[in-house]
Amino acid sequence: MEADRREFLKQTGLLLVLTGAAAQAWDFVLAGEPEKAPTYKLLDHWWAMAMDIRKCIGCGNCVRACKTENGVLLEPDCFRTWVERYHVHPDDPGHPEVDSPNGGYGGFPEKYKAGDGSKNFFVPKMCNHCAHSPCVQVCPVGATFESPDGVVLVDKTYCLGCRYCVQACPYGCRYIDPRTETVDKCSLCYHRITKGLTTACCEVCPMGARKLGDLKDPKDPIHDFLKDHMIHVLKPEMATGAKAYYNGLDGSVR
Amino acid sequence: MREWLRDREHMVRMGILFAGALAVFLVARAVMVPKDFGTYGHFRTGALADNMAHPLVFAGRQACGDCHDDIVASRKGSKHEQIGCEACHGALEAHASADDPSALKPKLPDVKTICLVCHRENVAKPAGFPQVDPKDHGDGGPCTSCHNPHHPEIS
Amino acid sequence: MESLLHSVQGYIYPDELQLQWSILIVLYPFITGLVAGAFILASLERVFNVEAVKPTYRLALLTALAFMIVAPLPLQLHLGHPERSFEMYLTPHTTSAMAMFGFVYLWYLMVVLVLEIWLDFRKDIVLMARASTGLKRMLYRAMALGSDNISERSLRIDDKVGKFITIVGIPSAILLHGYVGFIFGSVKANPWWSSALMPVVFIFSAMVSGIALVLLLYQFVSWYRRAAVDMPCLDTIARYLLYAFIIDFSLEMLDLVHRIYEADESFKTLDFMVHTKLYFSQIILQIIVGTLLPIGLLALVQLVKLTEQARRAIYGAAGLLTLVGIFAMRWNVVIGGQLFSKSLLGYTTYKMGLWTREGLLPAIILLILPFVILYMLVKLLPPWDKARGAEVPRAQG
Q1: pLDDT tens-digit profile of C257-268?
Q2: Cβ atoms within 10 A of the Cβ of A35, count?
Q3: Are A203 and B60 an interchain contact pair (Cβ–Cβ within 8 Å)?
Q4: Which A residues, 38 through 77, put their C-beta within 8 Å of a C-beta on chain B?
């Protein structure tokens, strides 16, 4: 079966299942000739995320899958992605009641009553993979960076653990992994998306409430998503060039 | 010249010391900066490969469909058609990439809990989403006694 | 972890539970502030010819050096990977305020402090090399770089270069500490920090703390050596402390009034924090005990004629309170800036460890260490002779 699968992926041009092929590709990248690499083309992609609040049901699948796929600690303060529940009274949108029990890892036990006149919804959160990332700006050594294909990554062998990036992220998307004493954050499942797969959170989202998109691919449905909906990003006043685009984002969301 | 130097000699010595330290620093820098630093920006290019090298845990629905095309077909047209297999069945790359996948048979999800992960009533869920209070929906039996999880509509 | 979770008020992003910058990062601006302040006081004499503070000139320089040597230690101790810190020299990221630390630090330590102290003490070093024997002689000879020349002309050259370095040193001192303020002031994600006033406030608070430290040290050292205190000198330093303090306090009040008047989206969250979690350290310690009280004491001396004894007691008290106040200010900036969530919807708590790597004990050791180093520096390079007036002729102009 494995052979069939490889064949299939090759035919659809997705490839890069083989670690051997990946290594070969990287020889070209390291030689400064990425264009000759046979597989993933670094400069042909510009990754973004389409989030649809109207679809999120707060099941927590994304949170669990992220921790599983990326080996994230199960601690209550280590999340690459998490889900928030908002409880907003229409006459007081400035003071939403928000919770995220264990990041939404175990879902959301019912807390509010229907018919109390409030507005209730879930907001999935993750690294916005900003094009002008404040976290990248402040890293003193270049241990966190924006990859040429638009992903904010961490070089765990180079990170000092100074935590300046944690302070600089307006969205609270970074934490220190106590096992490595380096910073950790969403990698947009870089190991998956460079093999033609989607991220773990998108893979398991039953509602399609989050969808990985490639802005450089004219055929990617993210273009329709951005065109057909009223789109907002988190904290636009921070001018971070956030690339997690939300449909149905309420003004009360911080 | 000698006359000029006489009372400045200590300064010159200090200058040489500083110049020496600077030279040592520049040499050390040239030697120690990672060779692949700075090709695509202010980072070690190898960090891209490091991030790529992380092992897969979820196989992705395409891999499931490679073998289980019968299930893919049975989900056609259902409300669950677009849901990734591993959303319910869990991470299965180990199964999918095994030499003999049948040897690593995944456990079936527990129907008493798996359906309610999504379908338990919650006011924060979108209004149109089908949600139930298990106490007054159905007859107390497992969901699968009425609903086929791959095609849950009751016809 | 569990108790920390229970201490959370309102909503914070899950990854915000633990504070990232601990008491060690409070120490860092506190210590560099003392360096910059002590140096600026020392340069008053040299550059602006304030003769009255001359007895503290060399002591202030050595104090600055002692604290400068310790300044990077809290940072090192706090890093997850201290062994990688040299990367800041290898691949400094030019957009990062922090990356410049290594260079500003080296510049200031080597080019400003070490050179200036070397030039100023060179005659003493050579004389001590001549007068001592054995290992001690070798040490002083090495410090003199093997030179035995203390001719009048060579000393005049030293003085000229020294004065130039002092002039370069003042902007360097301002850079050293201003950029520490910039590290905080430029974090746009954090409304408690993000302010163009931050570097300026840091510079003036640095001057305040450095002057207060020298004021205390000079009195202590005189008492310890049973030497007479030069009262005009002490009075002058105290006056400068008062002036710097008034400017510092005005700037902080300007920042406060600005925040209250603008009352942007973060205001209510921060205001609540100041009235609850930061009430003791900000209102009581920093503003009342550490600012208003010492300013009042120092102003009292200006307004009322007091005996020498009373003035010295007041200077001692005011100096101590000032240091407490400036430490509280650093605490409120660093710790306060991490107690509220960037969602502006809740608060977490700082649980300081005691014996842990970033706990209270290492912090106390790091605060004592500069005084140990200063003691050794003073033994190595006694700053007194010159202070008594046995003086190398200064180049004029």
Answers
A1: 999 999 999 999
A2: 11
A3: yes
A4: 42, 54-61, 65, 68-70
